[in-house]
Amino acid sequence: MGAAPSTPRLGEAGAASPGAAEQMFAALVGGKAYPVSSEFWRQLLELPLTLHWPRDRVLQACHAFAQNNYQTKHLAKILIHLVWCLQDCTSASSVSYGAYRKAINAAYISSIFLKFIIENAKADNWQELCLDIDKDEKGMETFPSDQSVEYFLMKGVLKYIGSVDVSPESCYLHHELLNLMLVLMSTQLCSGPSPEPKDVHPFIDAAMHQDSSIVALVVQKLLLNFVKRPQIPLNGSHPIFSDDGGPGVLQRVGSAAANLVLLPYYTFNYLVSASAEGATSQLADNSLVVLLILIHYRKCISTNESIPTDSIYMSDSNTNVKDAPAFHENPYCRALNNANDIQFDRADVEGNAQNGPIVRLSFASLFDALGTCLKDESSVLLLYSLVHGNCNFQEYVLVRTDLDTLLMPILEMLYNASRKSSNQIYMLLIILLILSQDSTFNACVHKLVVPTVPWYQERLMHQTSLGSLMVVILIRTIKYNLSKLRDVYLHTNCLAILANMAPHVHRLSAYASQRLVSLFDMLSRKYAKLAELKNDKALKVISDQMETDLISDDMSTELHIYTDFLRIVLEIINAILTYALPRNPEVVYAILHRQEVFEPFKNHPRFNELLENIYTVLDFFNSRMDMQQLDGEWSVDKVLELINKHCRSWRGEGMKMFTQLRFTYEQESHPEEFFIPYAWRLILSRGFSFNPGAINLFPVEIHVDVSCSNFSRKHINTKI
Fold first, then answer.
1. Integer Cα distance of 366 and 291 in angstroms
2. pLDDT in the model for residue 324
3. What's the DSSP call for residue 686?
4. For the chain, what percentages of helix, strand and coil (3-state, to nearest 5) are there?
5. From 622's CA, which of 18, 157, 467, 698 has a CA 20 to 30 Å away?
6. Cα–Cα dist 449/468, whole Å
7. Residue 703 pairs with which residues in a beta bridge?
8. What is the Cα–Cα distance from 503 to 497, expressed in whole angstroms?
9. What is the DSSP letter of 257?
10. What is the distance between the alpha carbons of residues 558 and 563, in angstroms, rounded to a whole number?
11. What CA–CA distance (Å, rounded) separates 337 from 294?
12. Cα(689)–Cα(266) distance, rounded to whole angstroms?
């Protein structure tokens, strides 16, 4: 390398004058290589970062850094110094503010240049990062010879995140490291939606190879951050950032002038909030999205690797093994799935020792935090990941007596489905479907009474059971989907939940009962219209027979779908009448009141056997009404009084017993094709900006903001 270049000098007594600071950053992005042992790195990282550069200068600096990094390897060197700074922040019992400042600056600066290189990289293997540093260089004596820079970096960052508690002193560093983690893992945005063996993600791949003890600590700490929601002080005068009590970095980033690192453009534009409420959740929110990316990552096994039998995730068990993509096991996903309640350890009870470290935390606190935060889409994805993958947490949720803590926000979001993304609606419905697979859950929701439902606008709902509210909201979701989305998958999930609940229905409210019968009426009218259209098409003579066949096929498919939907609704009503009629007089009243809607299907070959039971019930109660000597006309109260009286004597004579419908949720093949893009869409929607032209993970719409005079800013508008 030759003689080491001279280190740019700071001002008197080490003070960072504006000119000296400019000189330091010019040296960082310039063409002269500074050895890892150079005093330059200490002086750079001790800068208070008070520079303010406009956007075009920041971009010029990034371009220069990326171009010169091939020779200087400054990116690898600053990442190594970051790890050494983190080690200084954990090795001492009392960490100095200077040590924190150096670590924060190292994370802060490297995230900017890293992100620029990732966004603008041309090679699929990320050669532009230039992480292959000479390990014989002076100062590298302590660098592990068997580790790559990316592994060394991820080990240092993850170890700090997992092992150091968040405190008023360390919270800023935790925040910067979580932001840096998102930048490091953003290489995924540049790959296609289906993971392939050729995909290279140097940093997240290195994270997957960490020791199980580090993995468990990281998953546990990220969950605890989500639960505890530690605050980041916004006073801006913390000594970490300024020796003289001047403006802190958080204040400066939020000021009108663009800061050197320009966080609103390069990383999170919500990093600084003007309100205390915004500050309380930054660490929690960042911890959550980092956890989601880690647990849903999948690394394809390449063709030249031997496929282990005990440590892969096979995405499609129905495909020939030679053709099916195979994935390395994700240790973070496994750690989350094996997490246990700190109050109860199944391994202790069953005497089965778990392999490796176990994530343990308070399920009660996690349950409460999820209930509080479910309006955030990322929290919904976490809840799904837990109830689907972690049997311990799923069992814990099912035995809670306050299920309304989770269910009420879920139902409110489904009520507002028109303002939610289709993916969010799917996640909410799948969570309900998973829970409805348990008979205890189905029984409990009907015994839990909700005093009021303030967000339900169509009518006042007082003292209604949670189960009745679920039925109302699910039917409302079906009707919304029928008119707007027309998504068969969404229909099926809603009906599956109702079918699982049906045998356990208890005291279904009058409103919910009416909605159930009206659902059948709505679907039957849609079915009749389709059948009529199909018959009309069949009668018409059209010259283009191919077009006729195409229209006929499409209509036949839709007609078949609605036939299935109608049958499921009939099975739902059947299950209530067969297994729970005495406990549901309002359901009996609803079918008596609207019995004419069933008449057109009485002789239908797909429905007649199910309608036989409904007509058995109708005949029983109609005959009791006919025998009743009544002065005047029937009123609602008098009909209900008669129904209640005869429900007690109902014995189910003449009812045919059908096998109960029971739906279970199974992930479709290739779930990674949904969850990896979905998690990154969530991150982009929260303010993480990324060059839209570099995104291959999912389609994006690119909009150019021409109102910016200094720099043409591209904004991402993703369809989620």
1. 14
2. 59
3. T
4. 60, 5, 35
5. 467
6. 9
7. 715
8. 12
9. S
10. 9
11. 13
12. 6
pTM over 0.85: yes
Q: What is the pLDDT of residues 489-501, one digit of tens each?
A: 899 999 999 999 9
Residue type, 463: Q
For 526, other C-beta atoms within 10 Å of its C-beta total: 16
Distance of CA 418 to the CA centre of its chain: 19
Whole-number Cα distances in Å, 616 to 613, 620, 652: 5, 6, 9
Query: Measuring CA to CA, which residue among 489, 494, 461 is closest to residue 476?
Result: 494
* Structure tokens belonging to residue 205: 């791949």
Furthest CA-CA distance within the chain: 112
Contact of 356 with 216, CB cutoff 8 Å: yes
Q: How far apart are CA 188 and CA 209, in angstroms?
A: 17
Q: How buried is residue 470: exposed, middle or buried, by Cβ count under 10 Å (0-12/13-18/19+)?
A: buried
Token pair, residue 260, equals 């050197």
Distance between CA atoms of residues 263 and 267, nearest Å? 5
* Reported confidence tier of residue 318, pLDDT bands at 50, 70, 90: very low
Buried b (16+ CB within 10 A) or exposed e, 143-163: beeeebbbbbbbbbbbbbbbe
Rounded-to-integer distance, Cα 188 and Cα 199, Å = 9
**Closest listed residue to residue 105, CA positions, set 85, 87, 91:** 85
Q: Which two tokens stand for residue 709?
A: 């005079």
Region for residue 654 given its phi and psi (left: phi exceeds 0; alpha: psi -120 to 50; beta: otherwise): left
277: Cβ contacts below 8 Å, ≥ 6 apart: none
Residues 6+ apart with CB under 8 A from 623: none
pLDDT tens, residue by residue, 628-645? 866 677 888 888 999 999
Query: What would the two tokens of residue 87 be?
Result: 């080690």
H or E element at residue 716: strand 713-717
CA 168 vs CA 189, 238, 242, 246, 322: distances in Å: 33, 10, 16, 18, 53
- Look up residue 25 and give its amino acid: F
Q: How does strand 360-361 pair with strand 340-341?
A: parallel
> Hey, what amino acid is at 377?
E
CA 44, 49, 54, 58 dihedral sign is: positive
Cβ–Cβ under 8 Å, residues 462 and 395: no
